[in-house]
Batch of 2 targets.
Target 1
Amino acid sequence: MDPALGPPEKMAEKRDELTPMMRQYHDLCTRYDDALVLFQVGDFYEAFCGAAERTARLLEIALTSREDSTGEYPMAGIPIDNAESYIETLLEAGYRVAVADQVEEPGESPGVVERAVTRVITPGTLTEDELLASDDNNFVAALAGDPHSSGQTEDEIALALLDVSTGDFLATSSSANETIADEVSRFDPSEAIVGPNAPTDLLPETCMVTPFDPNTFEREQAEDSLSRYVRNPDALLASAVEISACGALLAYAEYVRGGTHEGERGADERSGGDDGDGTNRAESADTSSEETRLEYITHLTRYDPREYLLLDAVALESLELFEPRAVQGREDATLVDVLDETACALGGRRLRDWIRRPLLEPRRIDARLDAVSELQSDVQTRESLHDDLRAVYDLERLIGRISRERANARDLRSLRDTLAVVPDVRERLADADCERLLDLHERLDPLADVRELIDDGIVSDPPIEITDGGIIADGYDEHLDELRSTARDGKQWIDDLEDCERERTGIDSLKVGYNSVHGYYIEVTNPNLESVPENYERRQTLKNSERFVTSELKEREDQIVGAQERADEHEYELFCEIRRTTADEVERVQDLADALATLDALVSLADVAAQYDYCRPELLEHETGEEDAGLEIEIDGGRHPVVERTQESFVPNDARLTPEQRLAIITGPNMSGKSTYMRQVAQIVLLAQVGSFVPATAARLTPVDRIFTRVGASDDIAGGRSTFMVEMDELATILEEADERSLVLLDEVGRGTSTADGLAIAQAITEHLHDDVGATTLFATHHHPLTELADDLESAFSLHFEVERRDDDVVFHHDIAPGAATGSYGVAVATVAGVPNEVVERSRELVADTAERDSGVGLEGGEGDEHADPTAALASADGGERTVGSRPSLGGEADVDEVSTDVADELRALDLAHLTPVEALTELDRLKRLLEE
């Protein structure tokens, strides 16, 4: 076991002999044995024994020691004022951190100061701004399985997701493991708890799996936890496993904020657990459930994954929605980066959620598009709203801190400053035409009462500390004003005292001062001590002076210090009262935050549409009948939204995909634009379903239910999968799950194995997608013989990217056109890439040699149009017939018994007008050999 976790072994042996403070530390380590405990001692958080040694190494801090009657223990500490930066390092090292704070002031009780864990900091439950890496959601997840699982079939699995910093709370379920895995990828939780019978292999490696009491997943306990937040869980959630996941997740969220979960309470009740100071844990646990209830978690949203366009982890990565694929790529080269012109954190999170979950219903999509359209056309309103929204703070996280009583006076002023913007925002939407903007106008509650409370009660520029005074405005509370007046009058008397005493004593250097140890004093230097009056009482002797007090000065000191202390205490009480009153309006603040987030996201989409010449897409309804009619995607002058922003120029291209022509086989040289073209089609579709305008001159489409991608080469060495195996796994998923409403992107399928096998796989997949799946497909390939399938498959057609040959160079025009390409120009591309000339020239020689050999055709032709593909003619190694499905494989041999007939048929079928000279000679040579054999 990690020596930094659990009760220190050395302490455990002598637990009853430890000092009360060290026994507190030992017991907290026992209770929170899965976390590294940081224990407050004065102004520091301390760790002891193995935790101290580990902490000292990780944080590069001094390792000291603490000694008591039982021995000497290693100790390391971090300052409380700067704890977050150290805690972040511990989190990165894989630790959960339990923070044990002093929960009473020293001197309030005769014994040791009481300490309790007030929060357990984990990657998925961060709430501190200093620890949250970005404004995006940070989810912790819970997976719950069917408790009656037989293990024979796929049982229902529930997924619950909670952002502890904002209160966003979601739940869903499915009997398909792949669906839950896709949802996990979509939301990318930082941490997860997993119940019994729930598979952990649905979680990515980047997600920390935290062991948690399995009893919290039991129906009764989970429903009890959930019922404190939701009135009728059975009416909101679809199944018992969803209740299990949600209830356990809430119990975990309460636990990490310093609570005690049901399983622990039950154990305490059974044992009558004593904390060593006479306190029964069961009794305190009963009250902790309400004390640790997260008041700002007010909404649970149950959703069905089928309500949104599905994007699995592969599609999210391939389309570069949130993260760039290239290791050395530009950090801002993602779809969210080019769309995000939001003014505040609320809008940024909302926009990311829209991209994460594009819509399916044309009616809902058009409602967003109506708002974007109106904002795009009204430049003045759009720009004014953008300026207003810049002043909006992160209300969701603000109200979370306020509800958790972790907000300071500056947080309340930030809330007030945001509320001050709302009336102007409402006014700008008052004359809106579309329903979505009018609805936002109605939902923008200015919370005038809350704003007035903060305005009246909190000074405009309060200090960070909330216990040292100076935060409550003058005139807010009469008693506070009186205390302050007493303190001010006393301080003025002190100020006047110095002048009076100098005049009375004739000591010009006499000073009146104050320090926290000795209070107010009169200081006289040594040469003037003979002039000191008799009523001065010596208080302190210094090297060059003496300090004195008078009875009147002591009396005034008592008045001033007493009034100031009482004023500071009363200020803190008043602040807490204002904070609690504000927290009571949590739902109103959250509703306002939701409206502002939506408005900011819409303004951002309108800004991008206006700046970069996007058009409004037309959404079509799906035609329903006995069979699904499939998809229609028509794009004029489409552009890749990311590439066009990162390159000096971009060539637009059209796309026409209909139920009659739904499978495009795309050929062309490397670097001609095949991959960019496919991804831009997918991103334009996705943007349209987000409710955004799109980079095109016109776009018309039916919503897509799912986007599948098999793009690029990657391996999984740690998982024991080669590049080709990863490719086959991804293809298997596509072939199993795609349907008529899916958009499939395939790039270079079958390139990771032999040419013959690769072509066979590519042909079989093409036929299966066309005949059995019916998905709308873009298939980019260097297997040029696949273009022949366009003649055999009813709904298939060919597209290609042309190049211009100039001597030994090629010029890419990036224009797409009907038909097949004449070659891949691999050697020419190698030249452009800067491959040494001797290698290029040798490649040209080998191309020419290969073209003349009986075994195949040239990889790349020499001059003119002699650019053939290596798979233009394939010969079966065993002489047998190669078939894929019901169609003969491309370039296969006929059976020997039927050679003469087949050779004649093949000769008649040859389309000489579309063959290069090398291809024609190769075909002739093959047929000649068949006859000779």
Target 2
Amino acid sequence: MNTERRPGEEADAIDVLTRLSALLPPRRAAEFGQLLADHRAEHGAAALRTDVSAHRRLARLAASLPPAAEVVADADLLAALSEATALADPSLYQTFLSHYTLCVGSLVLLGGKAADPDGALAHARTKGSFLVTEIGDAGSHLGIRTEARFDPARRAFTLHTPDHRAAKFSSVAALGLPQQAVVCARLLTGAQNGGVFSFLVDITGADGRPAPGVSVSGPLPVGALPLPYGLVRFHGARIPYDRWLADGAGIDATGVLHDPQPSADARLQRTLSCGQGLWATLPSAMAGLAGRSAAMAWRFSAGRRSHGRLAPGSPVLEYRTQQHAVVGALAAAFSLRCTARAALSTWAGLRAARPSDGPGTAMTFSPWAAVDRSLALYKAHSTRAVADLVDSLQHRCGVSGLFDHNRLPGYLGFARAFDNAGGDNTLILLDAGRALAEERARPDRRSAGPGRFPSDQGRFPADPTDAAWWPAVVTALQDRLADDLAAAASARTEALRRSLHRSPHRSLHRDLDLWNPLLEDALELGDVQARRLAAEAAVEGSTAHRRGWPVPQAADLAALDGLRQARCLAGPLLATGVLTPSAVRALPAAMDALCDRLRQALPDIVAALDPGAGLARTALDEPDYAAALLAAHGASAGASAGASAGSSTGSSDRTGSTS
């Protein structure tokens, strides 16, 4: 760890390599950046079984970093490293995340650092993974079936997969180098079911072959993140006692488990709390992708003319639709950066606080919102927002947005993959929506009634281009939806009570009968709750004067992103009466006004929001895109001659295709 960090601009800079130079010794930061820049992933799925390149690259990166536990303990460094690897290569980010944030993060959180006595994980000589998902059932995190059976005679555990449906899933199918994983399993001792704990398990030995009692399937290619994913099963694999990440629990001489956590759900929450590090730092990676994608799309559009008959030869950015998409993406990138900083701040508060005695949000659909609702919502919002943003920009860049070397396809696949990975977004939003509705149903939280949103919108700033307008609107929408859902749940509860009184054996799943018709409403409320958190972060970021990150017209960017989201939520805003039809019809004109106000500052805004031009530059960034693309991809020797003679036959590249 760099104990002599440079204060001031470098520590808060948007450029991720500049930030790393303040968080690491400068020579180490330069080495790390060079290693990332030297590689572009080009291996195919056919080679995944023997492809250990991700492991070797991880080890090379680790050589320029402090020991892994120190990286995990430094939230700013972990976030910057996550962002840099995601920008350079999303599949490398997944390897980095699994090793540092989840595997080593579990050791740090749960008191298992002694399980790595020779530092193999600390310096990535052994690749670490995290195995929690079981492939056969939905919501497997709430019903983990892998068993760690305690053997009192040997004071050790044996790990068992009860059947094929409980096989674990992770990127472990490339054999040949040593691998370990933190495995989440149900601890059984005698007749006692101790709940879900984590165990550090050898997946392969020093020779790279599966360890005794472990079987690994062939690779399961995932195009969005090309890594050697596979299924893992355990057949009595032995785990020494000190590889149990006990987190203060213990098993006495008689084989009885003593756990300071008061319930099975509280134990599961603690075991999965390593997810906090993921949710706190993943928004930084997503913000990096958003800023890089928006900057590329703006530079590409700024140098592009349209031959449409409305105004032949006009820049494409003269068209309002292109402005709303591209300048709107810059606004979204600003808001996502503010969300990333809010997530890191929230995590810092959680780390400084005493661990809770149990989940504050019920584990209904998944454990994630119970681990920490705000962080889980930051994760869900960031990943979905970036997927939508990159998808839109890919379309706005035409065929150039589909070229792998222009990075947008890889960034889009990465963002979409994390809709499920790292905690399923739909389940997070369902739990968050249900929890908020139940909170609103308490007598001390009830609202004043249906008249609290007057039709003249006196509750909101009059000008929708005011940065404070959207946070007020989305908060009002959240409150209305929460009250409506709470009222609907209360009415259904009473109806079910009467029905069950008449027919006591009618249903074995009262909660499902209650919530099943309301799930779409709970999902919508969870999404709006996440948007409210992001809106608050954006307006705070637009008014704070942060050293090292001066963004021109930050308030206008926050306002423009708010208007984008208001248009997306026009239906709920109208249905709840939060906005009137005339207010919704006025949103495009307000966006036009903000685009006009931002026009002159856009080059400086792009420079302020682009975190990786030096790390992940593409032809889209160049003033002459066509020339840059040809230069980067080797125009054939006859191309220039053909071009000078006439372009009717098109130009050919080395693949033989014509343009």
